[in-house]
Amino acid sequence: MADQQLRFDLVSPERQLRSEAVEMVVVPGTEGDFGVLAGHVPIISTIRPGVIEVHKGTSAPERIFISGGICEVSSDRCTILADDAVDVATLDRAQLEQRLKDAEEDLADAKTDLASHRAAAAVAVLREMLTAAR
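Below the sequence we write its predicted structure tokens.
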């Protein structure tokens, strides 16, 4: 099965970001990371903020940070509907640290449950982005 290809589609709310044949995709599922190869059993999973690894050939995997979403897998396809996606190589640590500081201040200043929930979610995503940008 190692020589079989899998169709990988990455879609954001704005547009289709990727549609290509790959060997494997590693997805940060809510219940844990899982790898998808051609011939995988069909599943649907929610995705936590984290890094998708796209394996093509013998080169290092491409790393894409997603803030969350849904993954649908069939025997020959892996489709990720991402809330937001960005190439890990483009992440700027200094900018992320400032954004995290601002989000933590927003969380501390939140006056309503909704504002608190939104700020906490932003803090969680930014912390994962910082981890990915190492």
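The first strand starts at residue 6 and ends at 11.
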